[in-house]
Please model this.
Amino acid sequence: MDVLDVAWRLLAVLLAFLVLPLLVGQTEHKVMAHMQGRVGPMYAGGFHGWAQLVADGVKFAQKEDIVPADADRRIFQLAPVVALLPYLLVLVAIPVGPDGMVGQAVDAGIFFVLAVMGVGVLGSLMGGWASANKFSLLGALRTAAQLLAYELPLLLAAASVAMAAGTVSLTGILEAFEWWWVPWQIVGAFVFFTAGLAELQRPPFDAPVADSEIIFGAYTEYTGLRFAFFLLAEYAGIVVLSALTAVLFLGGWHGPFADDLGWLWTLLKTAVLAFVVIWLRVSYPRLRADQIQRFAWTVLVPLALLQIALTGVVKVVIQ
Amino acid sequence: MSTAAAARLAADTPGFLSPTGVEVLFLLVGVVTLGAAIVSVTSRRLVHAALWLVVALGGIAVEYLLLSAEFIAWVQVLIYVGSVVVLLLFGLMLTKAPMGRSPDADSGNRPVALAVAVTAAVTLVTVVVDAFHSTWIDLDDGGPQGTTRVTGEILFRHWVLPFEALSLLLLAALVGAIVLSRRKDGRTGGENGGER
Model:
């Protein structure tokens, strides 16, 4: 692998990182609007408001960058970067197509991806604490509690796939994939996707940013580009979670004509899952903080353990 | 090992005077890690101390990576940076989350802590230096690789009994923690409530 090759791969990953979250954001505008009987943005860019998020970006960049007087300046300013960067790193390791179509194949792929995703939450915690605002602090507290509860089912569900494939490398898992893994691992898929939603604080798990209770949680004091970074981190998170679920549980690039169109299958499955994420936002009420905790410990963790037991039994039987 | 043999060995292996890029990086990351650790225990601002701990733990993960122990490195990030520090910050925020300096953050045990830390460091450094001397381990080919496969095979073939014993110990600690945290509940429930 020469330098040029590496540079191309990193450039492609960076491009995906800059474009895909905006695509998801624009889709969210339009899908939410149509589900609610509106038309959504129609003016920016001309055709059905396709450039709405570009316009939003320009607006964010023009805003004054305000740091509250009592805030811990340096940590307050560092937090958005800590929240955003991990998702860029994770995208590097997600395989898109067969034959090495991946930014950088990581040997312990699952561990890398989950470990780095967990770091992103530190950004919300730092921002919430450094704002010196009680709503921000409450939001950060809820974020931390949520992360601690949902990290375990997320890991257990991923471990089940790793057991099935006999490897923790994401490309290795896809190479070992068979179609009947989908029904076999369907419970794990549900647990993984749900726990991932909770980690991203997407509805119905958005108690940490509940606007009717605590304004906007950890991000209350942010404006301008730093606020945009937090929003971008959320949408990059949707892309990463959908892509990971597609790769781990839905077979990633596998499908008809996988040799030529494998990357298209990955993108398609990711897009469908991202649509589900948006759909859930429109259709589900917000869970309370205690309901969120109970759901994690009494539903998701037992389900994930059940899936691991099932995976183990089937694995032993078929060998 | 006699001095002559040591000298011969030293001549055969790469020396310390012409370090490669990875070795320089290793040392630099080590210095950063040490610095972050020292700031972490001396800082008067509690949340800053926790965040410096993130830097120190992350630095150790990078060191593992440079030593080609990839699996251990990601587990280090997952457990320590992703969970332990989040738990720490959660505890801080739940209690006080002081913005400024905490004058009471200083402990009277400081000299004792320093003595313990120095003793531990000296012991570890002595043991490691005594065990390896100038042994050169080539990580690129044939050396002990830290990939997931190698780690897993060694753990579950050669060390499976200690591994299981450890997991039992952790399970006992977990059950103990739950029992301790439910104590008030159990007292009102009485002896017959122990079945739950």
Q: What stands out?
A: Chain B touches chain A through 24 residues (CB under 8 Å).
